[in-house]
Amino acid sequence: MSKIGITAKEIHKFSALHCETVSDLLVVEEPLEIRLRYGNKQDRQEMNLAITMRTPGHDFELTLGFLFTEGIIQSKDAVQSIKYCVNPKSNLEVENIVKVELAPNVQIDPSVLQRNFYVSSSCGVCGKSSIEAAMQHCSTQIIAKQTIPIETLYPLPENLRKQQIHFKHTGGLHACAFFNKAGELSLIREDVGRHNALDKLIGAHLSLNEQAPFGLLLSGRISFELVQKASKAGVQVICAIGAPSSLAVEMAQSNQITLVGFLKNNQFNCYTYPERLG
After folding, report:
1. Residue 183 pLDDT more than 80?
2. Are 50 and 117 contacting, i.e. CB atoms less than 8 angstroms apart?
3. Hey, what CATH topology would domain 150-276 get?
4. Which of 127, 184, 197, 229 could form a disulfide linkage to 69, CB 3.0–4.6 angstroms apart?
């Protein structure tokens, strides 16, 4: 089991003139099982909540962000601890299984947990057991509509690329970052899965006890689930280098989020709430 996000593999590299054997760097994709313990002190219950295919690293942030964006918890205070499980035979941590201890006063809604245990790295919604569960609207309400100067958006993709540590070696990672009204990137996370990268980012933000982030930058396209997660975190502006889906636009509209796509080469498309772009 790899402990880092990159691994080396010997490959055959072909060109029009010759073939050579070289060492190539690949992004790591491994399963992470999330187990949940909940209930009052006298009657603790345990369940296998989900298995997600992720890039190792920031596993506790990923778990915290996943629980929050799925609506299982409303704040990090609901979590007593997140730990790797321990192999009883070797007494060593198993770094692909995490156990979450919820506070005894946290009430679990069984309908929220209607998700299959396997979640692929490419699509977080694939594990949802119903369209209704997938389409649940977030409870976060954006009150103040702050504005951001248009010119602060243009440098965002290049600034993100410069800080993508693993992407420049592998080309196989999605990235996302929070940014403020001055266009400054704060937190950045990478993962083989788009939804995992965002869960890691949101989990890291929750751990810092900061106010809701203003803007979110995505390295790829915008799916409705990413908008759903961002809305839960209180994001007001979502920018992406790629395109949004129709459902992503609808969700951004209903959640009062300014949605920007194709942000590159000093141009972009705005799909919702352009009045935030001052």
Report:
1. yes
2. yes
3. Cytidine Deaminase; domain 2 (3.40.140)
4. 229
